[in-house]
Every structure is written in C-alpha cells, then in structure tokens.
Amino acid sequence: MLVVHHLSNSRSQRILWLLEELDVPYEIRFYEREGRSHLAPEELKSVHPLGKSPVITDEDRPVAESGAIVDYIVRRHGRGRLAPPPDSWLYDQYVQWLHYAEGSAALPLIMKGLTSYLGGMWRPLKERVDTELDTHLNYIDRSLAERDYLVGNAFSAADVQMSFIGELAAVRTDRSRFPNLDAWVRRLQSRPAYRAAIRRGGPYALEGG
Ligand SMILES: N[C@@H](CCC(=O)N[C@@H](CS)C(=O)NCC(=O)O)C(=O)O
How does pLDDT run across 53-78, given as a tens digit for each residue? Predict the structure, then answer.
C-alpha cells in the first residue's frame, strides 16, 4: 500500500490530490508541525533522512521530493493518465513544469516569507526577491494567457505539481496582479478530487508573511 507521510499545511497536500485524481488507494500518516519553529517533527527523519514532506513509501520503499513523487506516481500508478505521451513535445514541456516548480519558482516565494521578518538593512535582498518573484509569476501568468492548463490544454500532473506555487503566491503577494494565474488556481481548487484530498488530509492553510 502506498503511504503518504503528510505534514500539516504543506506541499504533501498536492500528493494526496494527485492520488485522488488517479483514484489510487493510499493511506495517510499524519505529522504536525512543531509549535514555534513550524518545522517537521523528528520522527519524519525515520522515513527519509531529510525529514521533509512530502515523502511517500510504496511497498516500504521511500520516495522523497515532490517532483520525483509526482513523476513516480504517474509512471507507476497512472496507467497513462495525467501526462502526455512520453515521445511527444508536450511531454518535454510537462517535464519542464515538474522541475520548474521546485527548481526555480519556489525559491523567491520561500525567500519572500523569510525576508519579511528582516529589517531595513536587508532592503537590497528584499528588492531582489521581489524582482525574482515578479519574473516567475509573470512567466506563469503569460503561459496561461491562452489556455486553461499548463501543458497543451489538458489538465495534467504538472498542474498539480505547480499548484503549490500558485497557492503560495496568494499568501506572499497580491495574486490578483496575475489574473490568468489566479483563475487557474481557482479552476484547480474547484476540482472534486482537490476537495476530496482536503477532506482526507485535513485543514490546509498556508502561512502568510
Ligand atoms: N523541494 C522539496 C521541499 C520539501 C519541504 O521543504 N517541505 C516542507 C513543507 S512544505 C517541510 O517539510 N518543512 C518542514 C521542515 O523543513 O522541517 C519538495 O518539493 O518536496
């Protein structure tokens, strides 16, 4: 049985959602963030040395890092669904979005949260973070200008992987400045499988700041 080690209010929510979309049976093991630090509890390190979420175990083998987990689930359990045919140009775009989410887009969003606590002397860093954030959110917004989904015009696991970026954008910046991105996130959140994943995974609220 596939087990999702699910940290509260975290990136693992999108893994639950992907499994709901594909109707793959799974179990959830719940972990709560530590009080003031908001870090994951130590016990998550017994699943994978990084102690981060998401991490899954499938037949007791761990897979960490959300892009790799999305790819694993689609390849091993997807039966050809939620990804373009592997020999197509669309597949290359699909892989790009899978990597781009955590490889590039997440960093300025995370930095924005961390630097919001810093005082005046950090202004140059904060300005750089804001510029980077605009670059990435504009790129995603423009990519969605003439389509409802990121790859071709069909919902895919790339939308699931990228959804965290769109959701975090709403708490770290004014997402209404990026109307296509904003509409896309709302479109994703209205999917029945998205809502089923929230019901199973429990409350999901990302932190502002
Ligand atoms: N790039 C990694 C990021 C993993 C990550 O940092 N997850 C956060 C939750 S959204 C986490 O585990 N935070 C708790 C901690 O760092 O202790 C992925 O996409 O899986």
Answer: 999 999 999 999 999 999 999 999 99
Domain spans in the chain, listed from the N-terminal domain onward: 2-82+193-201, 89-191
The whole-angstrom separation of Cα 68 and Cα 64 is: 7
Q: Is the pLDDT of residue 208 over 70?
A: no
- State if residue 54 touches ligand 1 by the CB under 6 angstroms criterion: yes
12: tokens are: 């693992």
pLDDT digits (tens, 9 = 90+) for 9-49: 999 999 999 999 999 999 999 999 999 888 999 999 999 99
* Pocket lining: 50 vs ligand 1, CB cutoff 6 Å: no
- Residue 155 pLDDT exceeds 60: yes
> Quick one: which atom of ligand 1 is closest to the CA of 34?
17
Question: Which amino acid residue places its CA nearest to atom 6 of ligand 1?
Answer: 52
First to last CA, the chain: 38
Q: Which CATH architecture has domain 89-191?
A: Up-down Bundle (1.20)
53 lines ligand 1 (CB under 6 A): yes
Which CATH class name applies to 2-82+193-201?
Answer: alpha beta
Distance 49 CA to ligand 1 centre (A): 12
Q: What percent of the chain has pLDDT over 70?
A: 99
